[in-house]
Design goal:
It is a single chain. This protein is of the alpha+beta class. It has eight helices and 19 strands. Helix content is 23%, strand content 31%. A hairpin with a 2-residue loop joins strand 3 (79-84) and strand 4 (87-94). The relative contact order is 0.19.
Length: 344
Amino acid sequence: MTIDLTRRTLLHLAGASSLGAAAVAAAQAEGAAGGGPTFANRTPMRIGMVTLRVRDLDKVTDYYRDALGLTVMQRSATSARLGSGGVALLDLERREGAAREARNAAGLYHTAFLMPTRKDLARWLVHAAKNKVPLSGFADHLVSESVYLDDPEGNGIEVYADRDPSQWQWSEGSVKMASDELNIPDLLSLTNTRVADYAKAPDGLRVGHMHLRVGDLAEAERFYHGTVGLDPTRRRGGAAFLSSGRYHHHLGMNVWQSQGAGQRDDQTTGLAWFSLVMAKQDILAAQEERLRKGGAQVTALANGVEAVDPWGPVDPARLALMRSVKARFDPTGACAPGLFVGGL
């Protein structure tokens, strides 16, 4: 099938009149953000899974399968699990009568799916154009190249590829990031734009980072830096970015729409929890001690602990730290060990 993948086509999908306007949209989606997936997943802590509460389970499941190419690993009347390469990345929970989460509430800004290579990002962009997937923007963040979109219930998504970490510019512990115009022709030069060959997500696709809406930036930093132990990598205009092992960021947080937001209503749609995975047992032990000393409510799990973050109702929001193992699909529904963060 021949695909008309012109600049005009992509701008139409992004609802923008120019690449500059698309970069502005991306800046609104990320602020300023964005090394290779192997780097991101070799750090002491990394993102594992995400769970979303959705009203229309079938529609949202099909969207992540068709638009992103995730594999449906498990599906029932009340939930679905999707992933790539046998690794679970996304759980969806049916909440048919739930109210739509307000944009000014603490919660999910976007889930960022990290492509293994820049060519994979190009292949996916051809796929998105072929299937007329609506996009909300594209941007060059210096550390990465990104495309933005939203699922059918308004949950933000970023699909991105990292530049080599050797190209990242660090100064006094802060990494340089921007929201510049994405060079789409250069990106697409890596693939045949006339033929879509993206049948499914590459096996190495992972959740590279999460970006959250929080009620108070300083409080969020105290929890995720002071208590959880992620390191700050950049701060700008109502947003902060943190990571493990000098990744540009595993976690973004902002108060652009949510300044002053209180605890989340767990009866609404949106983010239920996400996970951070510990690379080693001693890191898990240290994190558990850190949580307890930080005054977090800690509950023991079979393979870790869980706690409550500042915007999570006492139940069921949780932050669970667990030891990393080789991730495989578990038909029993058990999650890969990780750090679960809920009520964000």
